[in-house]
Design goal:
Blueprint: H1 2-29, H2 31-69, H3 72-88, H4 94-103, H5 108-113, H6 116-119, H7 124-135, H8 140-149, H9 154-181, H10 217-238, H11 240-254, E1 258-261, E2 267-270, H12 281-288, H13 290-297, H14 306-311, H15 315-319, H16 322-328, H17 333-346, H18 349-360, H19 366-393
Antiparallel strand pairs: 1-2
Amino acid sequence: MKNTGNNILRGVPCLLVIIVFFGYLAYSMGLANMLNTIMRTAHDLLLNTVFYLMGICVITGALGKIFVEFGVVDMIQRILRPVMAPLFNLPGVASLGAVLTFLSDNPAIISLSKDRKFSRYFKKYQLISLTNFGTAFGMGLIVIVFMIGQGYFAAPFIGLFGAFAGCIVSTRLMQHFTCKDYPAYRDEPACDDTDVDDEKPTDNADGNQESKPADSTFVRTLNALLDGGKSGVDIGLAIIPGVLIISTMVMMLTFGGQVSVDASGVETVTYSGAAYEGTRLLPTLAGYINVVFEWLFGFTAPELIAFPITALGAVGAALSLIPEFAKQGILDGNAIAVCTAMGMCWSGYLSTHTAMLDSLGFRNLLSRAFLAHFFGGIAAGIVAHFAYLALSFAGAL
C-alpha cells in the first residue's frame, strides 16, 4: 500500500506536466495542427537528418578504426601527452581517452578507465574527473565534419579550440569538487599496482609460445573499415530517439507558425500542421536576456540558444537544428564556432554522466559533475566567440 501511495504521488506531477506542456501547444497551434506537426517533424528529421548523421557516423567510425589499427591514435596521444599534466592535471596516458572519445562518443573513456593497466597511473580524484574530461571531446569528429558539411571550414576548428578550453575548466572544477568533498582521494591511488597483472603470451600444448600469423595490410584495412563502419551504424541508431524526441519538442518551442501581414500592417500567425512549426516560446524567453547571449556568445538571434539547450541532452539532436537555422538565415561563422564548442563540450552530458559515474562507482558525485560541466560548456562558448572575434579582427577569417 505504501508503494502504491508513493507511485500515485509521483504520477500526479508527471501527469500535470504532460497536460500543461501539450495543453499549451494545443491551445497555441490547435490540437490537429499540433499532432500533425509532431509527426511530420519527426518524420522529416528521421529521413533528412538522422540518416545523414548516420552516414557521417559510419564514415568517421571507419576512419577512427583505421587510425587505431595503424597507430595514428598512439602517435597523436604521444604528441598530446606533455600537455596533460600542466593543463588538465592528468597523467599523460589520459590523452588516449581524449582521442578515442573524439573519434567515437563519451562512454569510450569508461572502457579505458575500467582497465587497471590504464587506471593505475591515476589518483582516485583524477580518475573520477575522466567523466568530465572524456565528455568534452565526445563525438567531436562527427560534429566538426557535420559543420564543415554546412559550408564552414575555419569556424568548426575555432570551436574545437573552445571545447578544449571548456574541457580544462570542467575537468579542473570536478577535481576541485572531489578533493573538497573527499580529501583522501587526492593521494589515494585509483587502483593497487599489485592487482595489475601484465598480460603474458599463452603457451601451446608443447610449452612453446603461440604465434598467430599476422594479417596482411589489406585484410587489416578491410577489417578496420568494416568494424568501424559497424560502430558508426550503432551510434547512428543510438541517436534516433534523441533526435526525434528532443529535437521535435525543442523545435516546436523554438520556431513559429506562418506569418502573414494584412494591409494595415497587423501580423497574423497561422498554423497548418506542417513540419517545424511551433510557438516560439524559447526565443521569446531568451529575448528578455538576449543581451547576455549576444555579449557572451555573439548570438545574433535568440533562436540560436536552442542549440546548446538541445546539446545538453544529445549533441546529435542539436545538430539537426543547424540546417533549419541556415534556412532562416540566422547562421554565421561565429554561431558555427560557438555551437561546435558547446556541442562538443556538453555533448549530451545530462544523459551520459549518470551512467558513466555509476559504472565507476561514484554516482554520489553526479551533482558535482553536472555543475562542473555546465560551467565548462559556458566557458567553451565564450572562448570560441572571442577567439572568432579576434581572428576576424586580425583579418584571418
